[in-house]
Amino acid sequence: MVALSSSKLNKKASLKARFLECIKLNFIHNKKGVIEMMETFMILFVVFILIGVSMFFFFKFWWGSATETHKEVCLEHGTDLLSSIARMPDISCPGSETSACIDTAKLLAFKAAMDTGGATRRKALESGVCPKTITVEQVYPEPERGKNSTECARNLMTGPDFPENCGVWSVFEPKDMAKLKNRASRKIATPVSLYYPSKDSYGIGKLVITVYTVT
Amino acid sequence: MESVFKYIFALIVGAMFIIFFVSFAMKYMGTAETMEANELVAGFDDYLLLRTGSRDATGPYDFSAQTTIEFDVGKIRSGTISRDTSRIVYAPAKLTGKSISIWTKRWAFPYPVDNFFYMTNDRVKHIIIYEPGSAEFVHELNDEINDSYRMDSPRKYEAGGTRGEAFNQYLTAVTSRYSTAAKIRFVVVSTGANAIVNAIKPKLPKNADIISVSKDPDAEGWEYGTVKFGDDEAPYIGNEMIIGAMFTEDFSNYEFNLKRAMQRLVDVTEIYTGKADYLEASIGANCGNDYNLMKSNLVNFKSAAEDRTLDINDVRLLVTRAEGIKEANKQSFGGGCPVIF
Question: pLDDT tens across B15-29, in order?
Answer without folding.
Answer: 998 998 899 899 888
